[in-house]
Amino acid sequence: MLPAALGLMLLLACFGAARGNLSRDESQPTTSDETVVAGGTVVLKCQVEDPDDSSLQWSNPAQQTLYFGEKRALRDNRIQLERSTPNELTISISDVVLSDEGEYTCSIFTMPVRTAKVVTVLGVPQKPQIFGHEQPIDEEKIARLTCRSSGSKPAAQLRWKKGNKELKDEGTEVVEDPNGKTFTVSSRVEFRVTKEDNEAEVTCTVDHESLQNSERSTTQKLQVHYKPTAKIEPHPQYPREGEKLQLQCDGQGNPIPQEFLWEKEGSDAPLQLSSDSVLIFPFLNKSDSGTYVCTATSSMGSVVAKYNLDVSDLSQLPTPHVHSTPAPPPGPSQPISHASMATASSFTPAPIQDASPVPSTSSTYHAVIGGVVAVIVFLLLSLLIVLGHYLIRHKGTYLTHEAKGSDDAPDADTAIINAEGGQPSGDDKKEYFI
User: Per the database record, which ranges form the Ig-like domain (predicted)?
Assistant: First the structure.
């Protein structure tokens, strides 16, 4: 059955070709359909094998003669003669508009034969526009965007991308423009946004045959508001007793946190509430030990970051050694001064974790002080020894001036005389009045 059908179709095709050859008229003008983009130039070419000593002419869709041989018949500077011979008449129309579309007829002036061909004018789509969410959108909300392009003929196609990822539209709408010739095309997309979509580029591109391998597109950047995050950074990174310490509450988010509340766990009153994210300790000491809480707040909510500061007594600790390997977990006799940080959402607080102990050079200060004290003690002891030695060498009986007027005064006078007599004697004793 199938071979018989194929044979019949082949027979009909041969018959049609033979009939065409038989009906071919050498005096019949030949031309072709043309397609042109609005604003471009179209060339109309008409040829005939036997013009019978007559002239070719072109007419527009309104049956107005454009050219009769070499003669211009219609005053339109857009229409120009390209070539005129007994067998050919070629003209061009520049700055084509949509109203130029229609059937153009080539005919032989003295004969009733003519050929009509269609000129199709393509409407160029305008650059697409994106509407919706010109203002920031909160994370986890649904973004709804609309892309629109007018002036296409036939109707254009629109496609979406977010970054390098294609987006499937939710529907396309085609509406005829008021001129009755071109169309406006609209396309919609919907998707849920996350904080990763902040600053993401959404692109709408129009595809149309009039663009000739080029494309027109519009890009819109998304602005996504999301909850803040925060962490506390110490400066210096490893705080030591006696040094200045700054705690920086680093708040991130969109929008960026503008209010920072500093508190110390166990304290009733807040330490600081301002737009300043820095808490300063001019001179770090043991009383500063504790857990410090920074609450960073933006229009999207609040987040809590915690920092644990432990300043230990240095005078009872040996000087630690610095190792390049990670330090062991803090023990009862290890940390000189150590701190730890933890960040938690205001909705789900995170646990506090201690950082590794940090060696300190503060014990050097105590060693210097101890050395100074030792020198002072040594000098005092030396002074006492010298004074004692002096007193031993100058021992004797000492009488006050009041004793001179007492009953023993003669003895005192005798003692003075003996002292001044200068009689040498190894057993004599010298007595003085004081």
Answer: 29-120, 125-223, 228-312
Residue 330 belongs to domain with CATH number:
2.60.40.10
CA gyration radius for the chain? 54
Residues 6+ apart with CB under 8 A from 97: 38, 39, 121
Buried b (16+ CB within 10 A) or exposed e, 305-321: bbbbbbbbebeebeebe
DSSP count for the chain of H helices, then E strands: 3, 28
Among 222, 253, 269, give the residue marking a domain's end.
222
Do 325 and 410 belong together in one domain?
no
Rounded Cα–Cα distance for residues 56 and 73 (Å): 13
pLDDT digits (tens, 9 = 90+) for 222-233: 999 999 999 999
Asked if residue 125 lies in contact with residue 208, where contact means CB atoms within 8 angstroms, the answer is yes
Residues 133-187 have pLDDT tens digits of 889 999 999 999 999 999 999 999 999 999 999 999 999 999 999 999 999 999 9
CB 335 within 8 A of CB 354: no
Cα separation, 299 vs 138, whole angstroms: 11
CA distance 173 to 185: 6
For residues 296 and 267, give the distance between their C-alpha atoms in angstroms, rounded to a whole number. 19
Q: Count Cα neighbours of 120 within 13 Å in the Cβ-side half-sphere.
A: 10
> Domain limits at 108?
26-122
